[in-house]
């Protein structure tokens, strides 16, 4: 398993065992935990008779009653055994040092729990009797805990990062009366629209290939054996996936059916009932507890999820405490480490430590212990560029003004709309055999820092269109979602469209200090936000449509939110391209079912992006004065 996913599992499970495997340092030791906590293991019965393995760390300090904090995970609770203690890290360590009863559970069908596992198990709104889903399993677990675990104060919290964040979201639906505070962190909201597997219908290949292979493997002794990831035989993911050929080969030739969920993904290339059932957003109702949703601005896996979860809870549960926290982090990195930097970019503060001590801990202490020195902040977000925390009464901030950055002639980018008439356009040849790489690193997974990576390595390619403002004379702060409006045509019958918002540093920008890699940040083109739209879904994600060759066609899509300030001397850049490989699978550029496409279906095409007054293209942003 690659180191990227290793870090994710560490965050999700909060386990020092994984920290040791990943070569990461830990502050608290298993001996410290054993000194202050007693470990218990239980098989908790669900309403259908299936028993879920649950680990309970009970504080030895019996001077008062303590609240319970529950995490439900598919990643295992190693080491198993009542005498084998974990190394608490990150948020788990912070909570342990403040005397919470720490409970972690193997979800149904994983590791030591009984039953059948289902990926992103759909919510069952019509369940009755012994019918189950993740919401009912959470309810039954909480009900058992408050009736069997000694020394608690009657209050339960629920939190998790990534997949455990999804289980936290599911667990707050139809909340148990004892559940007082929930924090879904990097939760999954919709696997077709923007989380993990697809973005706007485009299939994310390299980010998921090894993970879902690893996830599907089964050990003879799952409590003790370690599962190995896919053997690529090379560190060069670009070359590996290009040599793989058509998408069907990912299963037929490489995985060979060893990842059933991957086979399912390829069998559902449109937003059909399979994906719609896994859209949690309409089910986030009857939430009767405080909610703090957390995400990272540079989370390559689940940025869509926390933003959508926050808005769905806000809209469908009026009157509850519902707040949003967004920091300058890759996937789950607020849950461990310092959060001082990502890649070569320093945030000039230990943002993750600040979050755990000043935001997360006070949230749980207030709603579970009754601390009164806490005031909810609707949106507590980190502003990149200026590197500071901001607080807002709403998200996006109500005072933000909508403005459009228009693509102009000569590669210019301007807030002034074009006035020229006629058929002004820029064009490029898109060749599936030579796709634009998404990273300059050699990786078979994905580099955690690619969402902030320098884009100079592709800016000079002929199949990447580049538009840029003059150097700014004052701060330009953008907040909230971005909206791409493109007028395009193609000589093919399908195409992908990738739009990237980039912060271009001035030539005299200082290099990192220390600088062991000898990096040069002068002229750095920092990716601020990028996303992809599969063109055949422009009118419907359920019923794709071919392009008419040569016909001007309008495409609109939303890129996830930002909170970023372009400083004086910097330039705003937008890059537009049609491949982003191997992060996104290759579009054949012919209107076919891509999972069954043949080699001959992959063809060059000429794409045009129009920018005249009658067919203007640009990026609509929300700007703060």
What layout of secondary structure does this protein have?
Blueprint: H1 3-13, H2 16-22, H3 30-36, E1 37-45, E2 51-59, E3 66-73, H4 90-96, E4 101-106, H5 134-148, E5 152-161, H6 163-172, E6 179-185, E7 198-199, E8 202-203, H7 206-216, H8 237-244, H9 249-255, H10 260-267, H11 273-276, E9 290-296, H12 304-316, E10 322-327, E11 341-342, E12 345-346, H13 351-369, E13 379-383, E14 388-392, E15 401-407, E16 413-414, E17 425-430, H14 456-459, E18 464-468, E19 476-490, E20 496-504, E21 525-534, E22 553-566, E23 571-577, E24 605-610, E25 618-624
Parallel strand pairs: 3-4, 3-5, 5-6, 6-9, 9-10, 10-13
Antiparallel strand pairs: 1-2, 2-4, 7-8, 11-12, 13-14, 15-16, 15-25, 17-24, 18-23, 19-22, 19-24, 19-25, 20-21, 20-23
Helix pairs in contact: 1-2, 4-13, 5-6
What would you say this structure looks like, in words?
- This protein is of the alpha+beta class and 625 residues long.
- The chain is 21% helix and 27% strand.
- The protein contains 14 helices and 25 strands.
- The protein has helices at 3-13, 16-22, 30-36, 90-96, 134-148, 163-172, 206-216, 237-244, 249-255, 260-267, 273-276, 304-316, 351-369, 456-459; strands at 37-45, 51-59, 66-73, 101-106, 152-161, 179-185, 198-199, 202-203, 290-296, 322-327, 341-342, 345-346, 379-383, 388-392, 401-407, 413-414, 425-430, 464-468, 476-490, 496-504, 525-534, 553-566, 571-577, 605-610, 618-624.
- A ten-stranded mixed beta sheet has the order 1-2-4-3-5-6-9-10-13-14, sandwiched between helices. Strands 15, 16, 17, 19, 22, 24 and 25 form a seven-stranded antiparallel beta sheet that branches. A four-stranded antiparallel beta sheet has the order 18-23-20-21.
- A hairpin with a 5-residue loop joins strand 1 (37-45) and strand 2 (51-59).
- Helix 1 packs antiparallel against helix 2.
- The longest helix is centred in the middle third of the chain and has 19 residues, at 351-369.
- Residues 14-27 have low confidence and may be disordered.
